[in-house]
Each structure stands twice: as C-alpha cells, then as structure tokens.
Amino acid sequence: MGIEKFLFWKVGLMVLALIGSSYSTLSPTGVNFEVVALIAIKSDLNDPYNVLENWDANSVDPCSWRMITCSPDGYVSALGLPSLSLSGTISPGIGNLTNLQSILLQNNEISGFIPTSIGRLEKLETLDLSNNQLTDEIPESVGDLKDLNYLRLNNNSLTGPIPGSLSKLEGLTLVDLSYNNLSGSLPKVSARTLKIVGNPLICEQASQNNCSVVYPEPLFFPPDNGKDQYDPEVRLGHLRRYTFKELRASTDHFNLKNILGKGGFGIVYKGRLSNGTVVAVKRLKDYNAVGGEIQFQTEVELISLAVHRNLLRLWGFCSTENERLLIYPYMPNGSVASRLKDHVNGRPVLDWSRRKRIALGTARGLVYLHEQCDPKIIHRDVKAANILLDEDFEAVVGDFGLAKLLDHRDSHVTTAVRGTVGHIAPEYLSTGRSSEKTDVFGFGILLLELITGQKAVDFGRGTNQKAVMLDWVKKLHEDGKLNLLLDRELKNEYDRMELEEMVRVALVSTHFNPCHRPKMSEVLRMLEGDGLTEKWEQSQSMETTRHEKHSKRYSDFVEESSLVVEAIELSGPR
C-alpha cells in the first residue's frame, strides 16, 4: 500500500471514529438527518436565553448538545426543553427524530399547531406540551404513538374534538387535556388518569363527574419477592422497574462505604448498574409506617412528572414485599453543602461566580415546583445539603422526601413539622402550616449559606449561639459590616454590589410574616436584577412597623416551638 493510500485509509478510520455511534444516522452523502431535524426545530423557535446556542448545523453528532439525550446506540432519545421561555412554533421536522422516547416542551410560550408528523414517533412514551399557547386541533396521528404513556396538552388553546384515535392506545397512564377549548363527544380513553376539566364545550355535554378532574388511583405493583417473578418490562411512564436483586448487587449489598447521605425517609447509596451506569439508590425505611407508602407513591408517580433542568430526575423504582427503592442519576459533584469548603489548587471550588449560578438555578427549580408544576409542589427542606451539583456545577434541587403536593385550591397544608433547624420558617415552627412561602424562607437561608460558606445547622456550634445565623446576618447588615458576612475563603474575589444585592434578597425572603415574603418568581427576578429596590423598600417599611410593636429574633421562634422538629442532615455526593 502506497503512503498516500495508507494516509487516506487512516484518515478515513479517524473520521469514522469521530462520527462514532451517530454513523447510523448519516445519509450516503454524509448528512446526519437528526442534526437536520434538530436545526429545523431550533430555527422555528425563539430562544431568548440562548440555551440552544451549541446546536451546530455543521455537527455530525448532536449527542453533546444541551437539552439532548441520546440512547446507547447514538440516536436522539429525548428532547427536554421545559420552562425556557421559548416561543415560536414546533417544526414538522420533529417527526424525523424517529427514535424519540420523550418530548418535554412544557411551560413555554410556543404557539401554532401540533404537527401531524408527530405521529411518526412510534417509540415516543412521554409527550408534554402543556402550558403553552398551542391552537388548532389535536392531530389524529397521536393515535399512532403506540408506546405513548404520558400525554399532557393541558393549558393551551386547542380546539376541535378529542381524537378518537386515542382509544387505540392501551398503554396510557395519564392524559391531561384540561383547560383548552375542545369540543365534541368524549371518546373512550383507557388511561388510568384522564383530565378534561376546563373545556366548557365538552363539559356542557358531559356529566359533571366525567368533566371533573380525575385524580390518580393508588399504585398497585406486582410484588417482587426477591425471585424476580414479574414482567421485567413493567414501567410507570418513562420509569424503569428494577429488581431488588440488581440494586443490591449494584451497591455491593448496600455496603456502608457506598452511603452518600442519610435522611428522614431513608439512606442514599452509590450504585453501579450492570451496564456500567452510576446511579444514586434511595432505600426507603419504614415504608409501611405512617407516611412511608405515601412517600413512595408521591415520589414515584407525581415527582416523576416534575421535569426541569434544575430538578433531580427520578429514573426508576423497585417495589417488593419488604422494600421500596428509588433510583436517581448520580450527581458527581455532590451537594452544595459538601463542596462549600472544598478547594482546588488553593482556590475554593465554589467561587463567587458559581455561587451566583447555584442561587439562580435553585430559584428556577423552585419556581417550576411552585408555579408551573401541576399539582404544585412544596419542597419543605430547602438547604445547601439538598441542592446537588451536576458535572457542570449546575444546581439540581433534590430530595423531595418532604414535599407536600397541593391542589391549586389550597394555600397551605398543615402537618407535623419536619425539616432542619435554622431553615424552618417561623410560621411553620409555630403552627405547622407550610406553603410556598415556607420554601421562600428556606431559599433565603440557602442564600446566606452561599454567602457565608457555613451551614445554618452548624452555625454557632461550639459557642453559646443556637441556630441564629439569620439574626447574626441581620445585625451585621444593619451595622454595615458586610465584609464580616462573606466566606473568608473567597477573599477579595467577589463583587461587593452583587453581595449587597444577594444579602438583601435573602433578608426580603426571610421576612417573619409569610405574607410579606415575595413569590419565588419574584425572588428569581430580583436575583436577575429586576425589582429588588422596590421590594427592599417595602420590606424595610414593614420591618419598621414591626419593630415599633415588638422586636423578635428567629432564635425566639425556635425556642418557643412546641412542635416536634426532625433535624435532617443530608450531605455528600448524591
């Protein structure tokens, strides 16, 4: 072989290696059809935050693009673009992504119609286009999605009849068509949960019972008694059911060395599945005790529907006679709490820039839970130990073990107090009543943890102080001594104006009266630089009025609380 031919042959092999698993998607002329489809989707969308910036038409492999998930054989399997303020329309080119299993475009401002080409996605299991501005009819082609499990088209402006073709789909778990302008008769849909409330033209013809919201029935899983005698294809939506045997093997029989964290409802272990995937396995304790089974069903069925880039995604579950386990992706950078004191080459891992990004990401995740998720979710234990960090140090809100789900008609829920001292809102300590404003308080304390580099639960340990980080910060801020607030490890590598703004957001968020705290969406806007001055002036005016009547510290609420407080500390990679 001549040198020229050899070099040509070698370069050819290198190109094939670079193409890798995406080779199967190339045409004879070297065009990747999935890249073409994704660029068409990008072109028809307006992307105000440039989240699709690295979608490159010249690329041969889209698997490294943001918001894209690929299967092991290199095909695009998930398109996840929820809550990104996207507008524009859905390109018909989406129908060329024939290996898609999940489309998540909810909580945007997308208009236009649902393309009929979507019916070509025969592997699609989850389609969520809810909370957009879609119009026109639901295409009959949705009935061709034979693997479809979750269909959420609620809160749009869709018109016309509900496609009769939906009756062909036998694997549906949830169909939510509520709050549209649909009309006509109601076809027989075999979904376990069907929601059509908020469609007046249907409701006028249907009985009140048929038109009201149908809540999910309790889950019933065939028992896994350790002998693996069940259908391995059993799924709950996009979730996989794992056997106890494989999870036990993945964690080396739940070896103590693999413990990532402990919480009120169980222990989290690092596991490695047989295919090499590293996961976090949450083994629930006392599942048959009060709250245990409720906890399991809450996380499996409802938390799995909460999908956002700043929320920890539930991957799977295991249910046996004696065990309940949940499987999550492994977060390689652990939790904020576990990294606050870490250094690399003498510099803090969480520098000021990363701490700001963590604050913004956490806020976005909580905004989704409170204002965009249906039903809305209260986390109830927002703290540095429950904010996880992915490979890019992006904040991921984890541990929904204490979450309470609220119907939109409810403003609060009353329970026994659970949480972490130093993070629990005063009204929750006093009455056991929690609301979205409870999370706002916890987020304010999280901001103080990011600023000070200390965990509220540890603050003052070794002294006579008792969980009084908030009182201490208020006093130093009043005295104009912000330099004493900041984590010393950051030294002078921070922006003083940004520090002042973040402290003010924290103090506004931790107002003792929940009615005077902002919503999380307002908190997010303040962190982004909009509306802080006005909110701060209002807060100061309220504080002046309050001080005229009486002066109370946060530590007073802690000392006066007669409710049981379970201090839960989760740390380490999760």
What's the oligomerization state?
single chain
N-to-C span: 54 Å
CATH architecture of the domain at 336-567: Orthogonal Bundle
Report the average pLDDT across residues: 78
SS class: alpha/beta
Estimate the global geometry from the Cα principal axes. Answer: globular
CATH topology of the domain at 336-567: Transferase(Phosphotransferase), domain 1
The number of distinct β-strands equals: 30
Main beta sheet: strand number and arrangement?
Answer: 7 strands, mixed
Report the CATH C-level class of the domain at 336-567: Mainly Alpha
Order of neighbouring strands in the sheet with most strands: 2-3-5-7-9-11-13
- Counted by DSSP, the helix tally is 15
Radius of gyration: 25 Å
Spans with pLDDT under 50 lasting ≥5 residues?
A: 3-24, 213-227, 229-237, 404-416, 462-467, 562-574
Relative strand content: 15-25%
Helix content, binned percent: 25-40%
CATH superfamily of the domain at 336-567: Transferase(Phosphotransferase) domain 1
